[in-house]
Amino acid sequence: QTLADELEAIEAWCDTLEDHELRAIIRAHYLLGDSWRRCTQRILNYDYTDSAKFRVYRYFGLVNRNKCTD
Length: 70
Hints:
Blueprint: H1 3-15, H2 20-31, H3 36-44, H4 51-59
């Protein structure tokens, strides 16, 4: 597979997400390279928090007792 094929597959998967904010966060962070802080500020309109990261990590089941591991 080429990088373009993988990008297309990721975009297609993102399109299946019902939560539009989660979809925007995943695209911004993983595809466009925005920092978690930037995603939180731009998409969720919060300052200086890890809210975007926690939303994604919760979606993938990576959060345990409200703690996140990078």
